[in-house]
Each structure stands twice: as structure tokens, then as C-alpha cells.
Amino acid sequence: MIRITAAGIGGFILVFIEAYIVLLLKSYQTIDFGGIGPFVSVWAMNFFLLFSIFTHIKLWNEEREKARGEVVREK
Fold first, then answer.
1. Which keywords does this Swiss-Prot/TrEMBL entry list (predicted)?
2. Which of 37, 49, 60, 73 is in the most buried spot, having the most CB atoms within 10 Å?
3. What does pTM read for this prediction?
């Protein structure tokens, strides 16, 4: 549940960071997302990117803890 929430909020923030980078690189004054549809599409891509990263980190952390537990038992 925490991963979903963090990915949703982080995806929303990333939309604006990406838009700001485009503003700086292209020297634009404003950005028109073209409506709510394209905005939600970009947010969804960012959401799934962050969710997959968070899932990978979670699995990596679980494997690391499992490996640490096995090392402690061997001693």
C-alpha cells in the first residue's frame, strides 16, 4: 500500500519536474499538456516506473535480509 501511495504522489511530482526541464531546455514560457488525457497518460507512465522501482527495491531488501539471516545462522 505504501508503494502504491508513494508511486502515485511521486509520479504526479515527476510530471511537473519533467515539464520544468522541458521549459528550461526549449526556452518555453508555458506548456500545454493538451488536456487531461495526455496529462494522465504521462502520470500513469511515471506511476508504473516508480512502482516497479519500489518493488525491485523491496524484493532486493528482502533478499538481502534473508542472506544476512543465513549468514548469522551459519556462525
1. Membrane, Transmembrane, Transmembrane helix
2. 49
3. 0.81
Cell of 45: 507512465
Confidence class of residue 70 from pLDDT cuts 50, 70 and 90? confident
d(CA 58, CA 49): 14
Q: What is the pLDDT of residue 73?
A: 64
Q: How far, rounded to the nearest angstrom, does the alpha carbon of residue 11 sit from its chain's CA centroid?
A: 6
Backbone angles phi, psi at 15, to 5 degrees: -55, -45
Per the CB < 8 A criterion, the answer to whether 71 and 31 are in contact is no
Residues 33, 38: Cα–Cα separation, whole Å: 6
DSSP string, 40-63: HHHHHHHHHHHHHHHHHHHHHHHH
